[in-house]
Amino acid sequence: MKIYTKTGDKGTTSLIFGERVSKNDVRVDAYGTCDEANSMIGFGVSLLPKEEWAETATTVMQKVQTVLFHVGAELATPAGKEVAWKLKDEDISFLEETIDEWQAGLKPLKQFILPGGSPSASALHTARTIARRAERIAVEIEGVNPLVLSYLNRLSDFLFVAARYVNQQMKVNEPVLHEDHS
Question: Which SUPFAM superfamilies match (predicted)?
Answer without folding.
Answer: Cobalamin adenosyltransferase-like (SSF89028)
